[in-house]
């Protein structure tokens, strides 16, 4: 039953990737807020 372990591993990697990507997006958004004018 290596299938369940593989799926769990893939889901874990995807979750980590999403967490890192969202963190990068938040940082990038905060950096973009300073130079740009708010409408």
General description of the model:
With 39 residues, the protein is mainly alpha-helical. It has one domain (1-32). It has one helix at 2-33. The radius of gyration is 17 Å and the shape is rod-shaped. It starts with a helix and ends in a 6-residue tail after the last helix. The relative contact order is 0.09. The chain crosses the membrane at residues 6-29. Keywords: Membrane, Transmembrane, Transmembrane helix.
Q: How does the overall form come out from the CA principal axes? A: rod-shaped
Task: Tell me the strand percentage band.
Answer: under 5%
Mind telling me the C-alpha Rg?
17 Å
Supply the number of helical segments: 1
Query: What's the total count of β strands?
Result: 0
Mean pLDDT: 89
Main sheet summary: none
Distance between the termini: 55 Å
Give start-end ranges of low-pLDDT stretches: none
- The arrangement of helices and strands along the chain is H
Count structural domains.
Answer: 1
Portion in helices: over 70%
The secondary-structure class comes to mainly alpha
Keywords: Membrane, Transmembrane, Transmembrane helix
Transmembrane segments: 6-29
């Amino acid at each position: 039953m290596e299938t369940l372990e593989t799926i769990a591993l893939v889901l874990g990697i995807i979750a980590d990737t999403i967490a890192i990507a969202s963190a990068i997006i938040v940082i990038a958004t905060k950096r973009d807020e300073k130079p740009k004018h708010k409408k």
